[in-house]
């Protein structure tokens, strides 16, 4: 084997060995949730980059206008592209949240969550030292 082949095979082994070692018995729902979580993080990053790009071209267009009309026109074009990018990213974000609500549990552990906005009885369980531990005098 050549030196290049050895380096490539060693790096591939180093990259993929943890997948074999840490492999667990997971179902398809877990895999889909992992993919959705990854897409959600990527969309956060893209949204941040789109905001930075939008602010930068606002500065280019309004605050620091270029001497030439061509530079101002170019900045206006990029402002339009960034607005289109916002729309596309938010659309993908909606699709990811639809997938999350379809396949995954969006709220996590619901053991101590109220069932409605008026039901807070399960958040504060009665203590054993309270003489009214079996009743709720507020209701």
Q: Key features?
A:
T4SS_pilin, 139 residues, 3 helices, 0% strand, flat, mainly alpha
Explain this structure.
InterPro entries: T4SS_pilin (IPR043993). Keywords: Membrane, Transmembrane, Transmembrane helix. The chain crosses the membrane at residues 42-63, 75-96. It is built from three helices and no strands. It is mostly helical. The protein has a domain at 37-105. It is flat. The N and C termini lie far apart (79 Å).
Radius of gyration (CA) equals: 27 Å
In this structure, how is the largest beta sheet organized? none
- β-strand percent reads under 5%
Shape descriptor reads: flat
What is the number of E strands? 0
Helix content: 55-70%
Poorly predicted regions are 107-114
- Number of helices in the DSSP assignment: 3
Mean pLDDT, to the nearest integer, reads: 73
The topology string of helices and strands comes to HHH
Give the N-to-C terminal Cα separation.
Answer: 79 Å
Given helix and strand content, the structural type is: mainly alpha
InterPro entries: T4SS_pilin
Keywords: Membrane, Transmembrane, Transmembrane helix
Pfam families: T4SS_pilin (PF18895)
Transmembrane segments: 42-63, 75-96
